[in-house]
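// run 5 | inverse folding | seed 20
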């Protein structure tokens, strides 16, 4: 069945590839991204493929912009069957040295950005008695990593938001799901990997963490591979609440649930070479 799928952060990476696959399968695509150039090239690509998308340049912190986008989407398509909140930024650094104003921006985009787009489309879904709200979280939304305290906090918050919201909206026929990728082979991590300054007590361990993380990214799923799994979740009639994109994530989350804290800590410190 053809769906109207709203995707935020669809300019590049997983969001872009997901939009392309869904459009290819016949779904209607509405979405936005802060990168206007990427939005433009994606729109051209989808139109060449015979689709009629509604794509806009919007910053997810622009509440009025999101509401205008919502109104345009409902006017054009009459409904939104799925909202996939994929917008988000990374954040890396020792907590002691974090610029809290920049941290606030991360939380604003990752958490309140997700909340804003869900809240915008929720009334129309409730009125219809159907819909799916899907948030891209992260492995670190359940397994916190060192030097990613702010990013982990934002993803823990997204997980809490979705799990709480599920109880509220399921009686109205609305499904809620989380997608929990570990790593995807994009430039996402490289953009935030910056060594602490010379003299920082955290510099050496952070350096080893970055080297290990960038090594792991080389063998991580590509955006195309991740998108194929995301499409399955978007199209599922009753998606699970928690969804991973590859077996390693599922394995790590299973270990996180059953292992004693001391053992989990030891594994993490050794795995990321920061003991």
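// decoded
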């Amino acid at each position: 069945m053809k769906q109207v799928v709203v995707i935020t952060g669809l300019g590049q990476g997983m969001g872009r590839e997901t939009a392309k696959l869904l459009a290819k399968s016949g779904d209607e695509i509405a979405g936005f991204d802060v990168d206007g150039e990427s939005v433009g090239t994606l729109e051209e690509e989808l139109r060449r493929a015979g689709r009629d998308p509604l794509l806009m340049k919007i910053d997810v912190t622009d509440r009025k912009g999101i509401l205008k986008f919502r109104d345009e989407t409902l006017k054009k398509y009459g409904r939104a069957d799925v909202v996939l909140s994929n917008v988000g930024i990374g954040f890396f650094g020792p907590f002691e040295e974090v610029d809290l104003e920049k941290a606030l921006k991360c939380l604003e985009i990752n958490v309140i950005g997700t909340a804003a787009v869900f809240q915008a489309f929720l009334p129309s879904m409730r009125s219809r008695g159907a819909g799916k709200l899907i948030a891209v979280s992260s492995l670190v939304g359940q397994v916190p990593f060192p030097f990613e305290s702010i990013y982990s906090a934002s993803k823990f918050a997204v997980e809490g938001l979705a799990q709480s919201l599920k109880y509220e909206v399921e009686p109205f026929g609305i499904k809620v799901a989380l997608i929990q990728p570990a790593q995807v082979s994009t430039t996402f991590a490289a953009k935030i990997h910056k060594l602490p300054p010379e003299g920082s007590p955290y510099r050496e361990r952070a350096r080893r963490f970055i080297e290990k993380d960038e090594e792991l990214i080389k063998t991580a799923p590509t955006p195309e591979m991740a998108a194929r799994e995301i499409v399955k979740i978007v199209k599922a009639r009753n998606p699970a609440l928690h969804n991973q994109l590859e077996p390693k994530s599922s394995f790590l989350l299973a270990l996180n649930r059953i292992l004693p804290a001391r053992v989990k800590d030891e594994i993490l410190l050794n795995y990321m070479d920061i003991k």
